[in-house]
Description:
Elements: E1 12-15, E2 27-32, E3 40-42, E4 49-51, E5 57-59, H1 63-81, E6 84-89, E7 94-99
Antiparallel strand pairs: 1-2, 1-5, 2-3, 3-4, 6-7
Amino acid sequence: MQRPTxxxxxxxxxxxxRDNDFNIGEIISLRRxxxxxxxxxxxxxxxxxxxxxxxxxxxxxxxxxRKKEIMISLLAILYNNLGYFLLTVVSTAxxxxxxxx
Length: 101
């Protein structure tokens, strides 16, 4: 991942490449933006903070966005199994349902 242009303190990221200080899958948040490629991040419990390069991270979506994605996926499975088809346009979160012929 490249350094985001609209970076702000508190932005959250998921670690995708193991680091000496962070494990894969760990959710971390920006503590201090020093304008480098490896700024300072808090661990989730804010017990300590370390530097990590952006290439080892991916953006972490907020809970509401993740819940919406999960619900859309569950609806797709449910309706497909009940004989319906589900067309989703995830980018605008519009869901269309129609009965199969």
